[in-house]
Amino acid sequence: MPVKNSAVGKTWERTNGADGHRPLFQVTCRFCTSPMVLRHSLIWLDEASQNSPHGTANLVCYKCPRCDSIQRFDVQDEPEYLGKVVEFRKGRLLFVPDMEDWERDEEIKKQLSALGYF
C-alpha cells in the first residue's frame, strides 16, 4: 500500500541497501552551509507506528562536520520495503555508516583523530 505524502521518488530515493534511502538533493547545514554527512538512520517500523505521526519511516540523521549541527529527516515508506532494509542490516533497526565512510571527509577525520579513533 503506497504511503500517503511520501517523499520517496520526489526528494529521496530507495537504495535497496542498509542505508535505506539517499537524498536527491545536497544536504547542507542551515547554519554554516557546509555539506553534511550521514550520521545514522533508524527504521521506525512497528505496529504502533502505523498510527504515529511518522507512519513507517526511515529516520535519517545528518551531521555537519564543521559546526556539529544535526538534521533529521523522516522518510516515510512502505512497511514491506522498510522490512527489507532491516534484513539488509542483518536484523538491526539502527544503521551507522562504516568508519571508512567518515574517513573520506578531512574535517571528520581530523575530529576523530583528536578523539583517538585514528
Please give a handful of descriptors for the protein shown.
two-stranded antiparallel ribbon; four-stranded antiparallel beta sheet; 118 residues; 20% helix; alpha+beta
Order of helical and strand elements:
EEEEEHEHH
Strand fraction equals 25-35%
Beta-strand segment tally: 6
Quaternary organisation of the protein chains: single chain
- The whole-angstrom Rg is 15 Å
What are the segments in which pLDDT stays under 50 over at least 5 consecutive residues? none
- Please state how the strands of the largest beta sheet are arranged side by side: 5-4-3-6
Distance from first to last alpha carbon: 46 Å
Biggest β-sheet description: 4 strands, antiparallel
Please state the structural category.
Answer: alpha+beta
What's the number of structural domains?
Answer: 1
Please tell me what the overall shape is: globular
The chain-level mean pLDDT equals 85
